TrEMBL record:
Database matches in SUPFAM superfamilies: FAD-dependent thiol oxidase
Key words, A-Z: Disulfide bond, FAD, Flavoprotein, Oxidoreductase, Signal
GO cellular component, as recorded: mitochondrion
Broad class of enzyme this protein falls into: oxidoreductase
Record protein name field: Sulfhydryl oxidase
Leader sequence residues: 1-21
Length: 196
């Protein structure tokens, strides 16, 4: 075979190889873009808290207030009979919340608390009871008044009553929801130290 033909064949082979590699990599990127299965690993869930110390006491208190409201309302809205995936989602959320909470020292304390009291996620009631309990643990450390967790179902409105009067915090009995959403009854997955 003449040397020129060799060179031409080699060039064609290189171009074909580059084109093939490009197709493979762009296909991979497309797959990645549509891949919604983000399953956080243990190192992601339990890694070091990300935020620095929060010096401003007013900001810390406002943040805490809002964060507890979010957490307790989330529990009040959690399904009565969650799927395995619902429970895993809530558990992951709590660990990520603890890791990313924007008050570093609060986050570090909360992570330690989660080691002692892992999130309870088998039912709405056990999740709500667990959240009340860990909030009380924080209250104790901060020398704040404790909350009576037997009243948690009356206090955080799930907003599922179906009328327009959705107060953020209910002072009366929670409204009975339509469909399968029933009022919160207190129970625990097991011991509070057991993971859900
Ligand atoms: C995860 C986390 C960790 C924190 N760690 C720290 C920390 O280390 N140091 C620090 O200075 N601050 C910390 N905070 C903030 C702190 O907990 C308070 O939010 C903040 O001091 C404001 O307190 P507060 O008196 O307004 O009531 P909050 O504790 O914010 O509570 C808000 C409202 O929730 C209700 N409530 C109280 N206890 C319970 C309960 N057990 N269950 C349900 N509802 C309840 C009451 O109506 C109360 O008024 C943390 C907050 C969070 C979310």
């Amino acid at each position: 075979m003449p040397p020129r033909r060799h060179v031409t064949l080699a060039l064609i082979a290189i171009v074909a190889f580059i084109a093939f590699s490009f197709l493979l990599s762009s296909g991979g990127q497309q797959r990645a873009a549509f891949d919604t299965s983000i399953v956080p690993s243990d190192s992601v869930l339990h890694g070091v808290a990300t935020a620095p110390k929060l010096e401003n006491a007013t900001v810390k208190a406002e943040l805490g207030n809002a964060a507890w409201k979010l957490l307790h309302t989330m529990m009040a809205k959690f399904p009565d009979q969650p799927t395995e995936e619902d429970s895993t989602s809530l558990k992951s959320f709590v660990y990520l919340f603890a890791r990313l909470y924007p008050c570093g020292e609060c986050a570090r304390h909360f992570q330690l608390l989660l080691e002692k009291y892992p999130p309870q996620v088998r039912t709405r009631s056990s999740a709500a009871t667990w959240a009340c309990h860990v909030h009380n643990e924080v209250n104790t450390r901060l020398e704040k008044e404790l909350f009576d967790c037997s009243k948690i179902g009356d206090f955080y409105d799930c907003g599922c009553g179906g009328d327009d009067d959705e107060k953020a915090v209910a002072t009366t009995k929670p409204k009975v929801g339509s469909g399968s959403f029933t009022p919160l009854k207190l129970e625990k997955d097991g011991g509070l130290t057991r993971g859900g």
